[in-house]
Design a protein that fits this description.
- The protein is an all-alpha fold and 136 residues long.
- The protein has six helices and no strands.
- Helix 3 runs antiparallel to helix 4.
- The longest helix has 21 residues.
- The N terminus is likely disordered.
């Protein structure tokens, strides 16, 4: 298992990004994918530091704000959809890792976002089918 060299700042997110790099390597992501995920994470780290976003307060809306800001000043053939997705997915994975480690507050309960029927099904899938949060 080769953990990519990770140059990061001294922000509160820096240590978490080092753990994220190790997690990617442990899960055997390709070196190119690891590099891309860490490139996105470093950009997000700078964005969060400039805005004073505390590590424990990271949320999906911070990721969306970064993605919009990072892709706003460029021209894209597809309107930027691919670029936004290519930045959003690694950062969502970072947020999931931070939540798994208990560093970031848990995601809002599904019932708040998806409605009671979907929340009941997700509870069933967790408890009776043994599916993990990352699968759901």
């Amino acid at each position: 298992m080769s953990v990519p060299r990770f140059e990061s700042g001294t922000s509160p997110l820096a240590l978490a990004l080092r753990r994220f790099a190790r997690r990617l390597a442990e899960r055997e992501y390709t070196p190119k994918t690891q590099e891309h995920y860490l490139w996105c994470a470093r950009g997000f780290e700078r964005f969060a530091a400039k805005r004073g976003i505390e590590l424990r307060d990271l949320r999906e809306d911070h990721i969306e704000a970064f993605v919009r800001a990072d892709t706003a000043d460029r021209r894209w053939d597809d309107g930027g959809q691919d670029a936004r997705r290519d930045r959003r997915n690694p950062l969502r994975k970072l947020l999931a890792v931070l939540r798994d480690e208990g560093v970031v507050s848990p995601a809002p309960r599904a019932v708040e976002v998806l409605g009671p029927r979907v929340a009941d099904y997700l509870d069933f899938a967790r408890e009776h089918l043994g599916l993990s949060e990352s699968t759901l």
